[in-house]
Amino acid sequence: MTDLDLSPATSTTAALLDAVAQGLTVFDLGRTLTVGMPQSPNHPAYWHALPRRHGDMVRADGGSAANDMISMGTHVGTHIDALSHVSQDGRLYGGLDADAALEGGRYAELGAHTIEPMVRRGVLLDVPATLGVGRLEAGQEITVADLTATAERQGTELRPGDVALVRSGWGQHFDAGDGDTYRGLSTGVPGVGEAGATWLADHGIHATGADTIAYERLAPGAGHGLLPAHRVLLVERGIYIVEAMDLEALAAAGVHEFLLLLSPLKFYGATGSPVRPLAVVGR
Fold first, then answer.
1. What are the beta bridge partners of residue 240?
2. 264 vs 111: CA distance, rounded Å
3. pTM score over 0.85
4. Is residue 72's pLDDT more than 80?
5. Are 78 and 276 in contact (CB under 8 A)?
6. What radius of gyration do the chain's Cα atoms show?
């Protein structure tokens, strides 16, 4: 390739580099992982320890190094659900037999390692702003009417291949350290239901995310007993779900359309992976 190469790939790369040179604003949509953070009780908790600290071993020149050990479930903190995460009537996405899909204790076909890195158009659907509230109520369902009204108010068109992020404002409880309310095991958690998930899927989106612990609406007292949106998205439509996102700064800035960058860890055969999604816009 020479300096005179004007191929589409070259011009696109130049445009990307030019955008970087002009300056970008990056919104970090991932939660900081801390011991004791709010999480679903169905998954192993996050734990972090330092097996070696500075001074435990000192080199001849006085140098020292510390190191870490981390254990956690793959559905703790901000994370993405692989298509192997949920089954319905013994079947995974594509009609794959859930028992037969398990090879040596791992899901080779639909595991987290099969999720391609995402560099896609992202859309924020700020439902509380549309409804004129700071955040939704416990157990409140985000309806198709809510989603439609939000898209229309923002002038935001959902397109095939997009990543649609649905804000409920419930992440404010995570920020405040109110883990019990954020989990909402007895009081419920707002989110989309089966109808809302179907509406999103019908737009051909690639993935969807939310600021809540289980993405979808949790009815008061029901916990994680029924998750119809997971069935629609993961099993029936093959759409990835991202949970426990931090959407407050993005909403406060009034950003509804952006470049979304998201890359799962390549855990072979796992049902999910921690992620650190980034929303990028020009300055």
1. 207
2. 11
3. yes
4. yes
5. yes
6. 21
